[in-house]
Design a protein that fits this description.
Strand content: 35-45%
Structural class: alpha+beta
Mean pLDDT: 84
Shape: elongated
Low-confidence stretches: none
Length: 215
Amino acid sequence: MSEVRLTVEPRTEFGKGAARRTRRAGKIPAVLYGHGADPRHLSLPAVEFARVIRDNGQNAVLTLDVAGAKEKAEKGTELALTKTITVHPLKNYIEHVDLLVVKRGEKVTVDIPVVLTGNPAPGTLVHHELDHVQIEVEALHIPEQVEVSVEGAEAGTQILAAQVPLPPGAELTTDPEYLVVGVNEAPTEESMEADVDTEGAGVVEDKAEGESAAE
């Protein structure tokens, strides 16, 4: 996972009115916290931040250049992960962001997408039961995704979280017994027709009973 640099600004106004003014200016209210420091209120460039999340995902490591901080002693640059993104339920714009300070060499716990590759054996159906696994990994080595191959997998195959390949140095924190992928026999045309016939017969029977009751 590559680092992405963003220039951000300190926020000195708070409350709903101030947040609305921040968003009207094309910025997103945010709070940066972690490592025992007091929370820092920032505003993020809305277009650039949305592009980062779209192109790199929520696990992108952000290098924040805080405008107005002249020296490193003033914490002019911080590494951070996006912890929470609050989106307006109707208008679909980002209302607020929580950021977590991280340090080089520090391990963090993140959710990573599980991507399936390959084709299972003929006549089978793949059920992707768990689309993310949680891992603990060094902050600057977060993978964009982990891949699980179902190439040639026969019916009855089960892949548990413990069997998901992880990058070096990463540790699984999801329950290792969670089912990630299950491969079952695909339903045949005959069995599907039988199900339809059975369901149809029940409908006709119920209708007939209803008519009898009405008579």
